[in-house]
Every structure is written in structure tokens, then in C-alpha cells.
Amino acid sequence: DTRDIATPSKTKEILQKHGFTFKKSLGQNFLTEPNVLRKIVATAEIDEQTNVIEVGPGIGALTEQLAKSAKEVLAFEIDDRLISVLADTLHDYQNVKVIHQDVLKADLLKLTTENFTDNSLPLKVVANLPYYITTPIMMHFLESDLPVAEMVVMMQKEVADRISAVPGTKAYGSLSIAVQYFMEAKLAFIVPKTVFVPQPNVDSAILKLTRRNQPAVKVVDEREFFKLTKAAFQLRRKTLWNNLLHAYGKDEETKTWLLQSLERAAIDPKRRGETLSLAEFAALSNAMLTIKK
Ligand code: SAM
Known about the structure:
Blueprint: H1 8-17, E1 30-31, H2 34-43, E2 51-55, H3 61-69, E3 72-77, H4 80-89, E4 96-100, H5 108-115, E5 123-128, H6 134-143, E6 148-156, H7 157-163, H8 174-182, E7 183-191, E8 196-197, E9 204-211, H9 222-232, H10 240-248, H11 252-264, H12 278-291
Parallel strand pairs: 2-3, 2-5, 3-4, 5-6
Antiparallel strand pairs: 1-8, 6-9, 7-9
């Protein structure tokens, strides 16, 4: 049988053979279009000198294409029913390891070091993400100490738009900043909902994230910087000033500190958070730490 797992006919056979029923709660929408999968692998520029982590292999549609190109593939799957399915469908691929675990609870650095034969090779994350936890998964990888060179990930188009958004647009927010601080984000291509079983309600997009040599901006304290960027978008239609008071306090001492910091960073308090660039947020955060209360 030379058909790819992702062909609609083979997917159907696999699901029937194993009596598999989809769990909506686990974000199970399987890709049934080999061409889209090949395009994902091409976008990720994977070769036999690349180690790949996959999140949510499902029945192995993407895993198979990754295994054909990469050195080794490590795939995290939470659904115990899929572990035996994967043992069957990926039987012929010696360079794949499936780990039965919630990726959000996984010690990524430890498991990666233990499971890849050659940890000096570049590491990429390639996945058709479970949409109910797209953001937590992205943050779990970014905040881990894993040296991820690139992430090529499928998600709801709306979330991909938010991650890759530029200042001054409606989609721009703390998520754009959290990701773009570490990675350069590019929307690679759109995937229509018709190529999945079952069909999701919305279209998807492939996002390509490339690790920057150093963070996009220089900040004195990363935690304070991210706290500020979150605070600035808390009350969506309010000014930066209102958001800052809401987050840091409304007493006179705090107001003075905030006003002096804004002035030092040359930012008008009447602006809205979504108009500030990463560099402006960095300047403000650094000023707040220098001036102190
Ligand atoms: N990769 C397959 C494909 O492209 O056809 C399946 C993708 S499906 C959108 C998401 C997969 O993630 C499902 O197999 C689901 O069981 C799995 N999953 C959901 N939550 C997970 C978690 N917390 N950790 C690991 N896998 C998870």
C-alpha cells in the first residue's frame, strides 16, 4: 500500500479499522490532503540534518511526511487511543518516536535530549496544532529553553493573523509581541477548512516563525516587559494611560512614576496600546525600571 496516510481513502480505512471516533474536546481535525502536507514540509525546509518535534500526530498524516524528510521525529500525542493507531500506521518509519503525553506538561528539554540521537542538529517544531490550546502551546515552546530554530505551525487563521500582526492594526496585541520578541513571524499560506475531517468551522493558516539571533528589542527585565505589554491591552478600547492605572495602581505616587516614565520614553499617554511598537514598549518598560517609584 503506497498511498499516503493523508489520502482521504486511506484515512477513512485507518479510522474504520481502529474504530476511531473524533474527540472534539481534543481539537481533532485531521488533514486529508497530501499536497498541503508536502507544502508544510517544504515551508519548514526540513532535510536529513533536521530534528523535528511534532505536536498532536493524530493518525500520523503529517508525521509520515516529516519522517520521510527529517533525521528524527519526536511526536507528542495526548489521546491514548491514538498510540496504538500510530504504532500501526507509522510501523515502517524507524526514525519516529511517539510520546504519549500532554505536550503542555512535557519537560521538552529533557525529553528532546533523551530521545534525539544527535542533539547538535537544528531543531524545528512542525505541527497541525489542536486549536483549543494554540496559544499555550506556542508559549510553552517559546518559554522553554529548547533551541528551536523554526516553528512551522498550522492554526486558526485568526490566531495566525494576531501573532503576525504589526502595530496600528486591530489584530496587534500582547500575543503578537510575546511571539515577535523571540521570532520573526510570517504567514506562509492559507488552508481551507475543506481539507480536514471533520471540517472545522474556520479556515486555517500556516505560520512560519524563525528564531531571531537576539530578541527584537533590548529590555532590562523580560518579565516586566511582558507584564507591561499585557497590561497595555487589558482594556481594549481605553487609552494606554487608563490601562496603566488599571494595572499598576491609581495613587499619586504611581501616577507620577508612570508619567515620568512615559515622558522619558517619549510616549503620549493618550495613545492606545495597539499603536505602540515593540521598541516603544521596550523604552517604556526600561524607563519604568530606571525611574522606579
Ligand atoms: N497531525 C494530525 C493531522 O494533521 O492530521 C492531527 C492534528 S489535530 C488538529 C490535533 C492533534 O493534537 C490530535 O491528534 C489531538 O489528539 C492532539 N492533542 C490535543 N491536545 C493535545 C495535548 N495537550 N498534547 C498533545 N497532543 C494533543
